[in-house]
Amino acid sequence: MTCSLCQRVQLAQAGQYPYLIYEFKHSYLMLGEHQFYPGYCVMVLKDHHKEMTDIPQPMQVEFFQELMLASKAIEQVMGPKKMNMCSLGNVVPHVHWHFFPRFENDPQFFDPPWLRIKEFEGAKITPEEGLQTIEKIRNALK
Length: 142
Ligand SMILES: [Zn+2]
Fold this sequence. Notes:
Blueprint: H1 4-13, E1 20-23, E2 27-31, E3 41-45, H2 59-78, E4 82-86, E5 96-102, H3 117-120, H4 127-141
Antiparallel strand pairs: 1-2, 2-3, 3-5, 4-5
Helix pairs in contact: 2-4
Bound molecules: zinc ion (ZN).
């Protein structure tokens, strides 16, 4: 198996992905392994599909509802000025969504978060460092 997100889903299913926040019916919400933008999360569809439009019904609609619940929980916990959500998949073509909370004090507030991708590596966190945020978002989803 070569898809890195299928591998991450397998880890989550085995209880071995330490950044896991919450398991939905069709997806996993995970805290980002870097927190350049505090509260950055990733939501990964359990099944391997390249495009949102490839997902069969009713999974497609239910996954969208899961996305909304996840975004709402992150908003409640992080209190951003604006939530940025995006699904690209050019690097790993397995449906996943990025949640970037954006804050008032962000000097590049009007720019897409990806413009600072080179700085993400320097903001890596350990699962222990992420634990408080993981638990807060998890609790907001209960
Ligand atoms: Zn995959």
